[in-house]
Amino acid sequence: AELEVRVSDLTSSLEITQQQLESLEEELKSVREEAAQDASVDFFRELNAPTWGGLLDQLYASEGRIAKLRSEGAIPQELESTATTVRMVVRFLKKSGLKEIVPVGTKLTLSLNDIDGYIYEGSQFGDGEAKDVLVQSPGWSYRGEVVSRPLVKEA
């Protein structure tokens, strides 16, 4: 009987240990995913930092200019591979989970309360005043986290 109690106690201890191990494995997986997310967001923030000339914004703008030139038949054959590379890099970034927050060229009406989510260039707001703005750069998010805020200029 004493042996049965001992086996039962050890079995219970083993089950508890297995549950704790599973819990720790889930927690470790969560920590790894969060660290990967943080590293990706930091990378994209650095990529679009003024230090590097807003590289994400530049790639996006270049893709648009290249598409326009291509439709006009104005891309020299010598630059075709560069144009293709830019398009592929932008496609890769978007497939990786990078998303524009607001498309360039969008017209918005913002008040002082709305402006927190944007980089605003223009005159100061008066009390309760709303201003028409035009989106100059889209701002970027990665898996729901803001990488850079959209740049808007007073219209």
Major sheet size, sense and barrel closure: 4 strands, mixed
**Number of helical segments?**
3
Number of strands: 7
Mean pLDDT: 94
How far apart are the first and last residues' alpha carbons, in Å?
87 Å
What is the domain tally?
A: 3
Radius of gyration: 26 Å
What helical percentage do the residues reach?
Answer: 40-55%
Structural class: alpha+beta
Parts with pLDDT < 50 across at least 5 consecutive residues: none
Q: How do the SSEs run, as a string of H and E?
A: HHHEEEEEEE
Identify the strand order in the major beta sheet. 2-4-7-3
What percent strand? 15-25%
Keywords: Coiled coil
At a glance:
The chain has 155 residues and is of the alpha+beta class. The chain is 51% helix and 19% strand.
Explain the overall architecture:
By secondary structure, the protein is of the alpha+beta class. It has 3 helices and 7 strands. A hairpin with a 2-residue loop joins strand 5 and strand 6 (145-148). Keywords: Coiled coil. Residues 7-41 form a coiled coil.
Layout of secondary structure:
Layout: H1 2-47, H2 55-71, H3 80-95, E1 98-100, E2 107-111, E3 119-121, E4 130-137, E5 140-142, E6 145-148, E7 151-154
Parallel strand pairs: 3-7
Antiparallel strand pairs: 1-5, 2-4, 4-7, 5-6
Helix pairs in contact: 2-3
Q: What key attributes describe this structure?
A:
coiled coil, 155 residues, four-stranded mixed beta sheet, 3 domains, three-stranded antiparallel beta sheet, alpha+beta, single chain, 51% helix
